[in-house]
C-alpha cells in the first residue's frame, strides 16, 4: 500500500475515521467487524450486514464516541436501525455514521502503535479495560517484531494467565499473534506517517480475534 | 536497473569496489576505536602546571600507572610539567600521536581540533565542558564538522575520559584505578562512574574499561557496544544510560552483541509529557518503551550500582545456567528458606533432588537429618560436609545451579566453607561435567566479610544477602536463555 498517496488523499487531516482505519486493517489481514459507511438514509437500504448491529458516529471530530452518546449497540431490526439513524442525525447534524456487526464478546485486549522520538514506531499490547487504565499492564516493542517478540509480549503482561486458560477462559493465541505481526507489518510500511494508533477493544475469542474499534492519528 | 539485471561486468566490478570500500571503512572505524582505547602515544592538550587543575590531574593520571606508551604534554607557556618535556602545539611533536586528550576551554576546542586533524590524529577525548549541556549547540556542531572533515573520532565532550586498567592507562582527570578484570563500565555520568570505580575497588571486582560517554557528540552507545564486543578483555558490558541518542542503531547493536549487556536506565519517572490523544500514547512514556527495547535485545535491566555489579560480576565470573532449577546449601534453616522464597519470587525453581543425590547426602549428614532442597547441613557442619554436599548437588541432573550459603551461627566455621567453595569452583572451572554456576551467599558482618576475601581474590561472586545472591543466579539463567542453552524465559 502506498502511504504517501494515502496521506495525500486526506488533504491535511490528521485523524482518520473508523472506516478508513478498518479498510487499512483489512489490507493487512487484520480481522475487523463487518462495517458499512452511511452518508444518508438511502444508504441504510443497501446494508447487507447480519443483525444485531451497532451504529457509531464516524467523524474525525469525535474521537471519544461513547462520551458524546455516539454509540448504539444491539440494533435488532431494520425499523430500529432507521429510528436510531434519525436520532443520531438530530444529535450530529451533517456527520457520517458507521454501521457494524455486533461481535460476540471475548477477552478485551488493546493493541496500539505509537511514535517514540528515540526508537521510532513501537507496538503496544495489553489487556483492555481496567488492566490498561488502572494497572497500566501493557508492554512495548520497537518495530519490526517477529513471532518470538509477539509471544514474549503475551507472556510479559502481569495478567498473562487470562491468555492461558484461566478458569475456563479460552483465547486463540495464534489469532492474537497474527494480529500483532500484521500490525507490525502495517506499522513498518507506515512508520514515517503514524503518530498513534489504537485497536481497542480487540476481542480475543476461543477460535479467533476481531478488532472492534480502531482509530489512528497521523503526524 | 537494466544494467544491473544484465550483470554488466563494469558495474559489478564497481559494486565490488564499493563493497570492499564499505567493509574496509567499517573495519577502519572499528580499528580506530581499538586504537582509541589502547593508544601507543598520547598528547595531553591543555596540560597545566597547577595541581588541582583538570589539565594537571589528567597528565598526572596518565603518568602514575604502568602505561607503556609515549606521552606528550602540550602547553605553549611551559617547558616542562611533572618532569615531562612540554610542546607548544601538536605540530611540534615529531612522532605519530594516536590519541589527543583535550582539556582546553570550550571556545578553544575547534582550533585545537583543526590542529589535531592536520597532525593526522584520529582519536580525541574532549574533556572540556560548555557545549550542548549548557545550550551551546553551534559550538558542538562546529566541532562535529571539523571531526568529519579529518575523520577524527570523538569521545565527549563533557566527559571524565576513560580508564583502561588492563593496559594500565588512565586517560581521565579523576584519580583512582580499578583492578584488572573483564567487566567494562560505560557511563553517561562521569560522577557516577567514579563512584563505580571505588565500589569495584572495595568489592575487589576487576574491570576492563571505564568509559565516560559525556555528551555523545560522535561516539555513542551503539559504537561502544560494537567496540567492546570485539574487545578481547571484555566479557560483560555494564552501562549507565540516561538517554540513548540513536534508538534504532542502539537496538540493532545490542541485538547483535554476543556478550551480555547489563543496564541501569535512569529517568524512569520522567514520563513523556507530550500531548497524547490515544490510549497507546498515554501508556507509552519513554520508560515503558525502554523496558521493551531492553527485553527485545535480551539486555538485563537493573536498578542501582550494587545490582549492576552483583549481576555483572556473576556474568563475568560464572558460567551461564542451562535451566532455572536451583539447589541451595546452608548451615541453618533461615537463610535456606529465604533463598528458596527469593527464588520462587524470581521464576527460579527449587526442585526435589534426585534419589541418587539424596543417598549421597545421607552418608554425610547426622542420622536424624532428612536431606531436602534447601539442603540443611545443620549447625555443626565443617569443610567436608560443605564440599561433599556442593559436589553432590552440582552433579544432580535436576539442578542447573547451586547457591551455597553460610550464616554466622555460633558453631559455624565460615573459613572452612569458603575453602569448600574454592575447591568446588576450581572443579567447575576445570571439569566440563561440573560446569554449572556456583553462587555464594555469606551473611554475618565483619568477620564474615574477612573470610569472603578468599573468594573475592579468586573472582568468585559472593553476596552478603539472599536477594542479591538470587538476583545473580537469575542473571545467569537469563544469560543461558540468551545463548540458547534452554528455553525458560525469565522476567
Tally of individual domains of chain B: 3
Number of strands of chain A: 11
The largest sheet of chain A is: 7 strands, antiparallel
Largest sheet features of chain B: 7 strands, mixed
The helix count of chain B comes to: 16
* Sheet with most strands: strand arrangement of chain B: 9-8-11-10-12-13-14
Which strand-content bin applies to the residues of chain A?
Answer: 25-35%
State the CATH architecture of the largest domain in chain B.
3-Layer(aba) Sandwich
| The level-1 CATH class of the largest domain in chain B | Alpha Beta
Residue-averaged pLDDT of chain B:
90
The CATH architecture classification of the largest domain in chain A is 2-Layer Sandwich
Features:
heterodimer, A: 219 residues, alpha+beta, D-amino Acid Aminotransferase, Chain A, domain 1, Dna Ligase, domain 1, 2 domains, 7-stranded antiparallel beta sheet, 4-stranded antiparallel beta sheet, 7 helices, globular, B: 491 residues, alpha/beta, Rossmann fold, 3 domains, 7-stranded mixed beta sheet, 5-stranded parallel beta sheet, 44% helix, 17% strand, elongated, disordered N terminus
Topology:
The complex is a heterodimer of chains A (219) and B (491).
Chain A: H1 3-9, E1 15-16, H2 18-27, E2 35-38, H3 41-45, E3 53-58, E4 71-75, H4 78-91, E5 96-101, E6 107-116, E7 120-127, H5 130-133, E8 138-142, H6 147-156, H7 173-189, E9 194-204, E10 209-211, E11 214-218
Antiparallel strand pairs in A: 1-11, 2-5, 3-4, 3-5, 6-7, 6-9, 7-8, 9-10, 9-11
Chain B: H1 2-5, H2 9-37, E1 41-45, H3 54-64, E2 70-74, E3 80-81, E4 84-85, E5 99-102, H4 109-118, E6 123-126, H5 137-150, E7 153-155, E8 161-164, E9 169-172, E10 180-187, H6 190-202, E11 207-212, H7 221-230, E12 236-241, H8 247-256, E13 261-265, H9 279-296, E14 300-302, H10 305-317, E15 326-330, H11 333-345, H12 355-364, E16 375-376, H13 383-394, E17 401-407, H14 414-430, E18 438-443, H15 445-457, E19 462-463, H16 466-482
Parallel strand pairs in B: 1-2, 1-5, 5-6, 6-7, 10-11, 10-12, 12-13, 13-14, 15-16, 15-17, 17-18, 18-19
Antiparallel strand pairs in B: 3-4, 8-9, 8-11
Amino acid at each position: 500500500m502506498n502511504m504517501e498517496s494515502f496521506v495525500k488523499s486526506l488533504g491535511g487531516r490528521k485523524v482518520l475515521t473508523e472506516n478508513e482505519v478498518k479498510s487499512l486493517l483489512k489490507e493487512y489481514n487484520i480481522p475487523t467487524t463487518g462495517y458499512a459507511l452511511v452518508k444518508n438514509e438511502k444508504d441504510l437500504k443497501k446494508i447487507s450486514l447480519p443483525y444485531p448491529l451497532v451504529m457509531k458516529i464516524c467523524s474525525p471530530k469525535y474521537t471519544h464516541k461513547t462520551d458524546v452518546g455516539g454509540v448504539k449497540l444491539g440494533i435488532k431490526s431494520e425499523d430500529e436501525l432507521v429510528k436510531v439513524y434519525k436520532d443520531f442525525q438530530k444529535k450530529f447534524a451533517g456527520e457520517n455514521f458507521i454501521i457494524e456487526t455486533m461481535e460476540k464478546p471475548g477477552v478485551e485486549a488493546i493493541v496500539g502503535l505509537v511514535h517514540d522520538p528515540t526508537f521510532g514506531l513501537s507496538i503496544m499490547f495489553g489487556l483492555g479495560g481496567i488492566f490498561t487504565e488502572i494497572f497500566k499492564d501493557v508492554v512495548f516493542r520497537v518495530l519490526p517484531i517477529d513471532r518470538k517478540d509477539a509471544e514474549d509480549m503475551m507472556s510479559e503482561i502481569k495478567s498473562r494467565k487470562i491468555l492461558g486458560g484461566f478458569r475456563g477462559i479460552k483465547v486463540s493465541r495464534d489469532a492474537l499473534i497474527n494480529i500483532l505481526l500484521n500490525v507490525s507489518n502495517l506499522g513498518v510500511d507506515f512508520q514515517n506517517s503514524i503518530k498513534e494508533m489504537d485497536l481497542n477493544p480487540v476481542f480475543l475469542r476461543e477460535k479467533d480475534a476481531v478488532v472492534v474499534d480502531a482509530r489512528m492519528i497521523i503526524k | 536497473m537494466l544494467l544491473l539485471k544484465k550483470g554488466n561486468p563494469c558495474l559489478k566490478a564497481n559494486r565490488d569496489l564499493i563493497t570492499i570500500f564499505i567493509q574496509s571503512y567499517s573495519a577502519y572505524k572499528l580499528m580506530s576505536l581499538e586504537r582509541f582505547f589502547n593508544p601507543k602515544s598520547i598528547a595531553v592538550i591543555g596540560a597545566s602546571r597547577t595541581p588541582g587543575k583538570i589539565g594537571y590531574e589528567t597528565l598526572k593520571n596518565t603518568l602514575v600507572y604502568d602505561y607503556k606508551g609515549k606521552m606528550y604534554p602540550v602547553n605553549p607557556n611551559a617547558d616542562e610539567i611533572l618532569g615531562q618535556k612540554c610542546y607548544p602545539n601538536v605540530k611540534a611533536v615529531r612522532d605519530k600521536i594516536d590519541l589527543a586528550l583535550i582539556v582546553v576551554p570550550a571556545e578553544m576546542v575547534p582550533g585545537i581540533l583543526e590542529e589535531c586533524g592536520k597532525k593526522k590524529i584520529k582519536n580525541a577525548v574532549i574533556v572540556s565542558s560548555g557545549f550542548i549541556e549548557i545550550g551551546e549547540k553551534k559550538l558542538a556542531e562546529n566541532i562535529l564538522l571539523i571531526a568529519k572533515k579529518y575523520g577524527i573520532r570523538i569521545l565527549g565532550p563533557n566527559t571524565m575520559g576513560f580508564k583502561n586498567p588492563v593496559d594500565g592507562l588512565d586517560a581521565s582527570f579523576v584519580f583512582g584505578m580499578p583492578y584488572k578484570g573483564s567487566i567494562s563500565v560505560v557511563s553517561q555520568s562521569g560522577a557516577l562512574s567514579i563512584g563505580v570505580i571505588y565500589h569495584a575497588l572495595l568489592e575487589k571486582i576487576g574491570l576492563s574499561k571505564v568509559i565516560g560517554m559525556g555528551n555523545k557528540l560522535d561516539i555513542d552507545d551503539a559504537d561502544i557496544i560494537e567496540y567492546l564486543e570485539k574487545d578481547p578483555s571484555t566479557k560483560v558490558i555494564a552501562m549507565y544510560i540516561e538517554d540513548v541518542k540513536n534508538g534504532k542503531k542502539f537496538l540493532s547493536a545490542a541485538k547483535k552483541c554476543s556478550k551480555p549487556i547489563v543496564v541501569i536506565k535512569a529517568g524512569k519517572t520522567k514520563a513523556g509529557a507530550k500531548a497524547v490523544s490515544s490510549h497507546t500514547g498515554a501508556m507509552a512514556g519513554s520508560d515503558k518503551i525502554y523496558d521493551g527495547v531492553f527485553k527485545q535485545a535480551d539486555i538485563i535491566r537493573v536498578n542501582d550500582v550494587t545490582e549492576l555489579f552483583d549481576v555483572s560480576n556473576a556474568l563475568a565470573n560464572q558460567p551461564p545456567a542451562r535451566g532455572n532449577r536451583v539447589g541451595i546449601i546452608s548451615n541453618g534453616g533461615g537463610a535456606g528458606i529465604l533463598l528458596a522464597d527469593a527464588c520462587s519470587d524470581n521464576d527460579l525453581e527449587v526442585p526435589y533432588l534426585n534419589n541418587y543425590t539424596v543417598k549421597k547426602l545421607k552418608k554425610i549428614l547426622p542420622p536424624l537429618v532428612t536431606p531436602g532442597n534447601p539442603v540443611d547441613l545443620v549447625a555443626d557442619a565443617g569443610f567436608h560436609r560443605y564440599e561433599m554436599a556442593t559436589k553432590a548437588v552440582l552433579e544432580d541432573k535436576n539442578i542447573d545451579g547451586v547457591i551455597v550459603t553460610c550464616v554466622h551461627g555460633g558453631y559455624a566455621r565460615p573459613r572452612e566453607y569458603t575453602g569448600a567453595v574454592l575447591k568446588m569452583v576450581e572443579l567447575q572451572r576445570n571439569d566440563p561435567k561440573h560446569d554449572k554456576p556456583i553462587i555464594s551467599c555469606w551473611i554475618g558482618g565483619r568477620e564474615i566479610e574477612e573470610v569472603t576475601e578468599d573468594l573475592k581474590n579468586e573472582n568468585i561472586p559472593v553476596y552478603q544477602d539472599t536477594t542479591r545472591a538470587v538476583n545473580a543466579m537469575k542473571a545467569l539463567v537469563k544469560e543461558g536463555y540468551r545463548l540458547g542453552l534452554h528455553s525458560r524465559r525469565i522476567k
